[in-house]
Amino acid sequence: NCKELQDQGMSQDGPNIIYPFPDHPETPLLVLCDQTTQGGGWTVILRRDDSYDDLTDFGRTFEEYAAGFGDVNYDFYIGNEVIHALTDLSSNELWVTVEGSLWFEPGVTGYAHYQYFHVAARVEYNLPPYMMDSGFYKGTIGDGMIYHNGQGFSTMDQDHDINDNYNCAAGHGGGWWYRSPCATVCLTCPYGTGYFMWDSEPYHYQLNKTQMMVRPSTCT
């Protein structure tokens, strides 16, 4: 992970190679590191910015979300297999930044810091695939992720939400840890639809930009 690179003296933000898979330690992966925010050591797992000329389509299949897609220099999703690998070996924390319209005022920024974040394996006991859990929130935008805790990851072709009558991923246009009603947060939903949001009382963000990052929680 990027924290290990930082410990080895690599202190610059930007793309780097890591080896995140314990079962395949020889397999490299190009990732984006943030070595600045709150002491650095962060591996970026999702980035979106509607100012990019070439916007990435997040209406992807379950397999595409498992493997990851996009370009680390632009919009991308690192992939659920990687997120599981990064968060499974040790306790990890999550840092989310958002920018968007809040109470009709554009360009408002904020953050959410979760001192605990974990994504389960695709197949793990009786858990739904890639089940997400987060906790110990601090920040300026409200604890939007708590609503999604304990949910499996849903996509347009694999529905794991708890809504029997509606595929949230197909309706909202992006893979996410949906439940019923679908979401208070969706960081993969399409730009400009109203679904790309962070909605946690009293904050109701319609987003233009977001980034999710993880690092070992021992960094705090």
Automatic annotation (TrEMBL):
<feature type="domain" description="Fibrinogen C-terminal">
    <location>
        <begin position="1"/>
        <end position="218"/>
    </location>
</feature>
<protein>
    <recommendedName>
        <fullName>Fibrinogen C-terminal domain-containing protein</fullName>
    </recommendedName>
</protein>
<dbReference type="InterPro" id="IPR050373">
    <property type="entry name" value="Fibrinogen_C-term_domain"/>
</dbReference>
<dbReference type="InterPro" id="IPR014716">
    <property type="entry name" value="Fibrinogen_a/b/g_C_1"/>
</dbReference>
<dbReference type="InterPro" id="IPR002181">
    <property type="entry name" value="Fibrinogen_a/b/g_C_dom"/>
</dbReference>
<dbReference type="GO" id="GO:0005615">
    <property type="term" value="C:extracellular space"/>
</dbReference>
<dbReference type="InterPro" id="IPR036056">
    <property type="entry name" value="Fibrinogen-like_C"/>
</dbReference>
<dbReference type="Pfam" id="PF00147">
    <property type="entry name" value="Fibrinogen_C"/>
</dbReference>
